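Milestone M4 deliverable, item 7.
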Amino acid sequence: MTTSAYDAAAVRADFPLLTQSVNGLPLAYLDSGATSQKPQVVIDAERDFLERSNSAVHRGAHTLAAEATELYEDARAAVARFVGADADDLVWTHGATEGLNLVAYAIGNATLGRGAPESARFVLQPGDELVVTEAEHHANIIPWQELAARTGAVLRVIRIRDDGSLDLDHAAEIIGSRTRVVAFTHVSNVLGIVNPVAEVVALAREVDALTVLDACQSAPHLPLDLPALDVDLAVFSGHKMQGPYGIGGLYGRREVLEALPPFLTGGSMITHVTFERTEFLPPPQRFEAGTQPVSQAIALAAAVRYLDGLGMDRIHAHEQELERRMREGLGAIDGVRLLGAAAGAERVALQAFVVDGVHAHDVGQFLDAHGIAVRVGHHCAEPVHARLGVTASVRASAALYNTVDDVDRMLEAVAGVRGYFGVSGSDAEVRA
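Output delivered:
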């Protein structure tokens, strides 16, 4: 895009899948919070590598191996720049879930006495505390539960308020002298609210706790500078940011990555192996055992170059227009309750809601019949739904390729849900 005005229709045309119809109607894809669609340049980048340059990286002296290695490491540099980092501070993973597990298991390995002397900073004692928030995706809860079970540490939870905002007063109470890790989401995949990273990091810094940020729902939607956020570690997934499946990133401050012992072990991450001992490469290669996701990394680099070409500031501004239209439109529909309705909160274009008297799955099927794709269920975030008194919700999530018409079609369809199912205002509420 070279013009100053953001042309969502022109952006949409870059995405082949969005040209199709669903149930005889143009597709309005509002499920990017689950997975994003891919522009043609990303599809072409992966196919071109496989057709022209496919070879194992870091392992061969022949021409193809050298070319593949250069493309692979150039991709690392491009994706690192996209999040404000240096190439050596970006570890390739298969996604954010693997990145979070990597960190949790590495800390567990340090607790078992594995790693260099500097790994001692991560050793957990029984009664040490790992802190998360009520708004987390399961991927940022369960690894810490498991780490607590293995080490005797305790999992503690920062509350959210009824409006979905993070309770910073409670955070200040929870984060204390026994806190060793504070793991929290940048943007909730249910609430759409941008959390106050600076305030949480400041609380963690006061007690020298490690900070781990889940940036899955922010990386595709906000200009992101992870070093400027001052977090120790952060994860994101390629498939949510117009890239392919099977690739993601773990960002880490250099001194933190150097101190963490490895998680997965095997080929590609060593300097010397005998039957008595093994010496490991420095990061990021220390954490990249086995066969690397080469074509996926190259395609993810094509995705971030595409996003950079559009301009993340312009993408964010466009999505903010969609967010306001979506939130205000849903809020005006009788019988619709928004999850995460905090006034004045910074948000991305993601809104979960319930329709009184109608199961979320029925709402989703009704919208699908109108050519509108949304998410239904608890979105791998069951605890936040329980906190807000619901078992399932409908989630509409927009991205750079969505138009005002997509949002308006969704609003018109939601307005017709209760009438279609014969639910009146006097009927008992059903939110399960």
